Every structure is written in structure tokens, then in C-alpha cells.
Amino acid sequence: MKRTFVERAGDMIGKEIRLVGWVFRYRALAKTVFIVLRDCTGTVQIVASPEQVASLGIKLDDVVDIRGRVRAEPRSKSGFEIDLMEAIITNASSHDLPFNSSSDISQVGIEVVLDHRPLSIRTDSVQEIFQVQASILEGFRSYLRKNRFTEIVTSKIVASGTEGGTNLFQIKYFERTAYLAQSPQFYKEHGVAAFERVFETAHVYRAEPHATSRHLTEYYSLDLEMGFIDGPEDVMTLERNLLSEIFEDLNKRFGDSIKKRSGDFLPDMTKTPTWEFAECMERLKKSFGRTDLVDDLDPQGERQLCEIAQKEFGNPSVFVIGFPLNARPFYTHPRGDKGAAQSFDLLFRGLEITTGGQRLHTRAALEQALRAKGMDPKAFEGHLRMFDLGMPPHGGLAIGLERLTGQVLGLTNVREATMYPRDRNRVEP
User: Fold this and answer.
1) End-to-end alpha-carbon separation of the chain, Å?
2) What pTM value is reported for the model?
3) In this predicted structure, what is the pLDDT of residue 425?
4) Which of 103, 314, 397, 418 has its CA 20 to 30 A from that of 364?
């Protein structure tokens, strides 16, 4: 018999159907046994007599193949139940699982949760994290395609680093050394010279020896680059509209859960203010007495600026632009002549989720910037020669998907929003 998905069972009252899935809940009474089966479309209750299942030894998270008849049942939330005709255990689960798919795992340690990833994702609370993440990814692609961006796929094996060779994972590449890409930055810029507007979604790699709740050595980056811009403000405007559309959809689909987890629905990002870096320093000094920051923000400063934005604008987000140029990558365009950069971060609910800005677009300017940072332009010749092909003024951004997911849902550790996290200590499973 052909398999029927749970979501279709209610349309087949009075008919015999075949269901496959996992045992989500199991309750045995004196005269009746209730089995809640789960598949990728939902759950359904199956009713059996003790005699029908006595020899099977069914337990939670067993994989089962069930044949039954659909019966209308007004007392059921779904309006129907399945009367069991035959049940087969396709694969029995272990007797010593640390938790079950129907468990509340909020108090289970994160290492145990990660060690049993498929089982933890089968729980409602964790599965929803990755459903939200999939929706963010879908929204990112959808919005950019509607706005004339072309999706590109680029190599993650590179000859040198995009930021001067720091924090790179080195790999043996036949008779030479290569590296895992920190970013698709160079390739995005090449894409601008070809398509004008491009985006990519892919893993990137940072050999940073951090062991914090916000860092990963492998994360999924949502990148875009666009040509013929007048300044980084064009990129920020696009991101405001992009995130607003994504957030509106998430509020519709997961709003109640987002509010319960994070404390509020997702905001209208078109109302996100833009503050110069120097202005941020003054705001932090005035509101919190901070005088210790020089050329970048620390995690506490990011949280404090979002607190100020929430208080003044009712929106827990802020674009910070004009960081000191010497602290930004060599390809960053200067902002005026006082040492600032046409580079921005987007802070959301206390955490940086985006870095972006305007790039240098002439070979001469890039060579000068490389020399100013003590780097030899010859080492970047493969990249620089692309600027001889007609490169327009351009800029772009990168969003960390796991960080964004975590901030949307109010998670405390980015690893919760990573299916198989790679960090300072974990390379399995």
C-alpha cells in the first residue's frame, strides 16, 4: 500500500491507509493503547487494543510502519483518529536514549543535545529553530532574486586570504598549500564585474581560537554585492528592506513562538537608525560612562547601543558606520579624509549580525591600500587584474545565518542555531 502523509489522513475518513514515522508518544491504558505517530508533516493518534501491540514492545522513537482505518472522532483536536489494523517496527530505538523526541530538553546540556543531533532536532522546540532558519534563507534568496540579483556559487579553496592571510585554515593541495575561504569577498566583486548584482549563500571558515557563545570556525554566510552604488547607504537601505520582508514573513509564520522565546515580535527594520562610529562613542560615554573603546566595539558596547536604540526608537537595532579605516580590510573605501571607513556593522538585539560597506573599485587605489598595510600587491595579482576589466563602484554585506537565527529566536548560544557546529573544540558528529 502506498504511504499516506499524516497531513492527508484527515481527508480519508473511512478509508484504510498506511502511515510510517516515529513513535512520538505512547500511552497504555487497561483496555486501550494510544500511539502518537510523527512524520515530516505532523502527528496523528492511533488507537489500538493491548492485544494488538503486546508482542511488539513498542517504545518511544521506534520507527514504525502502520496500517489502519481513519475514523471521525469529534473529541480529537484533529477531528479524527486511526484505528490500528497492523503495526511493524521497522527499526527499534535504543533503550538508553538520553532524552526522547517528545521530551522537554530545555534542561539538557548542550553537548548532549549536539551529540544526539537528529534526535534533538526531532523535538518540537529544536526543530522549529531550523524551520525558522530555513525560512530566513528562503526569504534572503527570494528578495534578492526579485531585485535583479543573480545567485553565484564560488570556490571555498583559495590561494590566499581575503584579509591578508590571517585566521586561515591551511590545507595540503597536491604539491602546494591552499586555504579554506574566509569569505567569498573577492569572488563577489568579480561577480559584480559580470552581473552587477550577485549573492551567494555558503559556508565560510575562520581559524579564530575563540570558545564563546557567538563564534564558530565554520558558519553559513549570506553574502551579496551590488554595483553602481553611490555609497554604503545604498547597501544599508537594501538590507533594511530585505530584513523587513524576511521578518514580516517570520512574524506571520512563527510570530507567537518568536515572541515567547525572545520577548517580542520582530521589528520593522526600515526604522533602524544609522549612527556614525564617533557618535556611538559619545552615546556610550554619555549613557554608560564608557571611554575604553578605540577602533571597534566590544560585545558589551553592541548590547548597550541596542539598548539606546530601543529606548529612543523602539527598535533594538542600529547601523554603525564610519569605523576607523585602519581596523578594516584593505579593500574598504575611505569615508572622507579623516581616517574613517565606508564600512558598517548592523547590530540587532545586542549582537553584530552584519558587516558591510563600500569597496575600493580601482586597481591603483587597491595597490596603494595594500602597501599602506604592509602587503605586497603582487600577492594579490589574481584578484587585482579583475579590476582592469571595468569594475564599477560597488559594495555589499555578509550576514551570519546562525547569528541571525539566534537573535530572531532569543537563543543564548550560536551553536543552538547550528545543526553541526564547528568551534574550537568540536569537530564531531
Assistant:
1) 36
2) 0.93
3) 87
4) 397
